[in-house]
Amino acid sequence: MKDKLLLFFYLFLLIFVSFLHSIGILFLVFMLILAVLSFLPLKVKEKLRILRRSFFSVFFFSIFVSLPYVFIGFLIGENRFNYFLMVNLRAFDLTVMTFTFLEIVNLFKALDFSKNLSLLLVLVSSHSISYIKVLKDFTQAFKSRSPKNGVRGEDLKNYLTRVVSYFFEKSMETSEEIYIAMKSRGLYHD
Question: How far is it, in rounded angstroms, from Cα 105 to Cα 68?
């Protein structure tokens, strides 16, 4: 029951924070999230991992989404710095909330009120686990076949290209298999 209540509270907070536009209020929410995180019964290492993962997620989001928007605004003479702060602070708030939620809630228990959501969670988590294993295998194979004194840029490029193409092909294959399996069980009506 605790997990279900936390799920609905998290969804409420997710929607609430998504509608905030004031940098001051978003910063206050950020400070509240940090205060809650500091009092949670998690190890310090886990708390730091949540913050580190959140920072890197928002950092890459900022580089590829927000920063180009601000740069284009700079080129046309608009000051979009407040927008940059608001969007990135909101993204950081939502990301820290999400990683914290995933750390303290058992999603399988939280979604057991719906058979379809539970099935979807099982499918997603099983694919995630298998993809993580394959990625580790790729990484270990690359390390074992690379010279000890360094990796050439072209070798790394070929490795990354192969990994991305493998996962793309595997995802297409898996989604087709799941579609056919679910259709045969009567879950799709064309």
Answer: 36
136 φ, ψ (degrees, to nearest 5): -65, -40
Are 87 and 66 in contact by the 8 Å Cβ rule? The answer is: yes
Give the pair of three-digit tokens for residue 79: 């000051």
Q: Quick one: DSSP state of residue 146?
A: S
Question: What is the rounded distance in angstroms from the CA atom of residue 129 to the CA atom of residue 91?
Answer: 26
What is this structure's pTM? 0.77
SS3 string of 43-95?
A: CHHHHHHHHHHHHHHHHHHHHHHHHHHHHHHHHCCCCCHHHHHHHHHHHHHHH
Residue-wise pLDDT tens digits, 58-81: 999 999 999 999 999 999 999 999
Q: pLDDT per residue over 15-30, tens digit each?
A: 999 999 999 999 999 9
Q: Kindly state the tokens that stand for 80.
A: 């979009």
**Domain residues of the chain, as ranges?**
2-110, 115-184
Hey, what amino acid is at 110?
A
